[in-house]
Amino acid sequence: MKKNRILLLLLVALGACSKHHPETPPDGAVTQPLPAPAGQPIGESEIFFIGTDGGIIESEDGIVKIDIPAGALDAETEISIQPLHNTASHGIGQAYRLTPHGNIFRKKVTLTFNYWKYRHVLSGPQAVEIATQDDKGFWTGIGGTVNDTAQKIVSVKSDHFSDWALIESMELSPAVKTVSPGEAIRLQALRYVFPVAGDDWVVPLTHPAAGSGEPLKIEATYIRKWTLNGPGKLEPNGSEAVYTAPTSTGGSRSATISLELSVSGSKVLLISTIYFIEDGISLSINGGSWQQFPAMAFTMQESNLRSLTNLRTNATDPQMVFLWPENDLDNETHYWYMHNVEDADVTFEWDDPSLDKTIVSFFFDGEKTYDSGGFLATQELEKDGKKYLTGVFIIDKAGEIDRTNGEQISVKRVIGTYKVQRDW
Questions:
Q1: Gene3D superfamilies given for it (predicted)?
Q2: Please, what is the end-to-end C-alpha distance for the chain in angstroms?
Q3: Beta carbons of 141 and 174 less than 8 angstroms apart
Q4: Which residues contact 70 (CB under 8 A, 6 or more apart)?
Q5: Is the pLDDT assigned to residue 193 strictly greater than 80?
Q6: How many Cβ atoms are within 10 Å of 207's Cβ, its own excluded?
Q7: Is 373 in contact with 116 (CB distance < 8 Å)?
Q8: 259 vs 30, 33, 98, 190, 219, CA distance in Å?
């Protein structure tokens, strides 16, 4: 287990499921922090009653666990966990409102976040931190986090409840990207932590000053080595690099770019994964051969959902459907979520041609049903007067269901890319 003593004061920007990166991050001095609005609730809150003996409670999605020791409360207390839209800058997944707010504990409680579900969109597990939002809207890391990068859990002790979220402290941006043959993209090593002068930005000894609302480039003094694993060409230049995809991939589906940093004598590795796209939907199930299907994306009438679906050209084709909430963002990362919340549900369903089996974006672990790990990335493009939607998707622990009895047969891993025309 690795203890991170990071004391963060985070700049504040956009919502939970999207990641936005500036074209040219500033290199100058940081300015005052910016407050963010409180996150809007997603679905219903969960209510627990904990007495003087303490107890352990967990959010329905399995992301947040709270260990309240004996003697932390004077009397039986109503505790609630409310999922929220995450308004922290570079937040990971949802935020959570823990109530009652304030310093209500005589002993510190342990908050543990499980980030297994989000690991595929992270440049590295060492960048994961926990942040809390105060009553003025500022997101702040309280320090003392313990990050178990093997188990993908991060914990912190606190004497109060408020709104809490996972965030990233640094990134090789973009962490995940799709490219066409011969396309070139710019990679940037970015940080989202802003210490006072003379302090370390990764392990500051004091509460750092905040940023300007934009990330900063990681200074060249920390950068040790850029490495390309896979086809294409990489041209590094300090904290930036240009990657150019090959005109022919030779059967390869992706390339991995890693950046090695040396921070306070420790090695830190940031990774970006580049996926090569083809027309339609291309996917592989459980590491099997890749399949390709014609497809399209459209806005569903009389709902706020968008859909990506393949076009069945014969009876031997499966039917697959992706659904996610419509909004005004053209570049997003969505996490699988199926709790019958119209503005938050993100789902995948694959129906076997015989309709006897289906693969879905949730699974049963023997006791509870959880959302699958992974994500759906969407990016809107326009080329030659046509509108396209491109992206990549990963579904870890996708449940395979027997339609005749509704029982789970197995869990599978689905990975794929797509480039389709869209109707919006």
A1: 2.60.220.30
A2: 47
A3: no
A4: 52, 53, 54
A5: no
A6: 16
A7: yes
A8: 24, 28, 37, 11, 13
Do 348 and 395 contact (CB within 8 A), yes or no?
yes
Q: From start to end of 35-193, where are the E strands? A: 46-50, 55-58, 64-68, 77-84, 91-102, 109-114, 128-133, 139-140, 145-148, 153-158, 161-168, 170-173, 176-179, 184-191
List, as one string, the DSSP characters of 14-68.
Answer: S-TT-----SS---S--------PPPPB-S--EEEEE-TT-EEEE-TTSSEEEEE
Q: Count Cβ atoms below 10 Å from residue 412 Cβ, excluding itself.
A: 19
- Phi, psi (5° rounding) for residue 221? -65, -25
Contact 374, 359 (CB under 8 A): no
Q: What residues contact residue 167 under an 8 Å CB cut-off, 6+ apart?
A: 8, 10, 88, 89, 90, 91, 92, 128, 129, 130, 131, 139, 141, 192
What is the dihedral sign for C-alpha 46, 150, 414, 417? positive
Give residue 27's identity as a one-letter amino acid code.
Answer: D
According to the model, what pLDDT value does residue 208 have?
43
φ/ψ (deg, to 5) at 153: -130, 145
Helix (H) or strand (E) holding 363: strand 362-364
Q: What is 2-171's CATH topology? A: Chondroitinase Ac; Chain A, domain 3 (2.60.220)
CA 67, 72, 76, 78 torsion-angle sign: negative
**Domain ranges within the chain, ordered by starting residue:** 2-171, 280-422
Residues 242-300: tens digit of each pLDDT: 999 999 998 999 999 999 999 878 899 999 999 999 999 999 999 999 999 999 999 99
Residues 141 and 6: beta-carbon distance below 8 Å: yes
The predicted-structure confidence for 19-60, as pLDDT tens digits, reads as follows 444 445 555 444 456 788 999 999 899 999 999 999 999 999
Residue 222 near residue 195, CB atoms below 8 Å: no
d(CA 264, CA 273): 26
Question: What value, to the nearest 5°, has the Cα angle with vertex 106 and ends 105 and 107?
Answer: 90
CB 96 within 8 A of CB 82: yes
Could you tell me what percent of the chain has a pLDDT over 70?
87
Closest CA to 181 of 272, 251, 252, 245: 245
Mean pLDDT of 118-125: 96
